[in-house]
Amino acid sequence: MKIGFIGLGAMGHPMAKRLLDAGHQLVVYNRTAAKASDLVARGATLRDTPDAVAWEVDVVFSMMFDDATTQETTFGKDGIAAGLSSKAIHVCCSTVSLAQARRLSDGHAERGQTYVSANVLGRPPAAEAGELFVMAAGAQDVLDRLEPLLKCFGPHIFRMGDDPIQANLAKLSLNFMIYSTIEQMAEVFALNEKAGTDPRVIFDVMTSSFYNAPAHKNYGKLMIEHDYDYPGAPVTLGLKDVKMFMEAGGDYGVPLPYASVVRDRLLSAVSAGDADRDFVVLLERVRQESGLK
User: Fold this and answer.
1) Active site (annotated) includes residue 171
2) Rounded to an integer, what distance in angstroms lies between the CA atom of residue 238 and that of residue 245?
């Protein structure tokens, strides 16, 4: 199948590579064209604009940073919508606000185009290994067509519903659970460190007993090793996601008091100069408040 991929960042690049590894013809676009060089060397075709990609493929995936870049790439001049045929599918994997999710869904519907949201859970190493968790929402017959492609990203495909927005809300919700888990671990590590217990011992007890999910193992390891400077996702990204989660709570009239705690912790990290470090650096804000050096 001929597949397009737009947005070759930390997550998009390995996802595009997985499609190429599976034997699909790949057509790509990225604002910084050099990021596509290794894919082109392996047979991918590079195009100058998103619409040029969409025009010649059966399915086009997009993975952009935020609402603004997603909107521009999709509906702006030379955007995906300008080149997408009535038989092709746009699959957006970006983490966006619910307002932007509605703009995507409504905008494609007004043009008579097929659109699906397929958000993913996992860090770049999981994307490289094809071990992402995919949450997809859209028309069920369209998801049937897409499932073999989605399985290139990971073996677990969760169908969230018929409305693409359902996948976006699930992504924001589960990202929030990651950030709140990091806050919990930060408080536990700092308290026990203050009492003289090595955080590595707490980590060992934690991950060898009840708290052995990937979030505890992967993020906890980064935290006890103070591995903040090669971010899979920076503090600014976490702050963006939590703000969008809180906006979703407002949309649906659901109080989210703990989200405010996590947002404030992320804001503190930005104020401390840690905006571009991995968001597990939240541990240092808790340690600082605890009087730990």
Assistant:
1) yes
2) 11
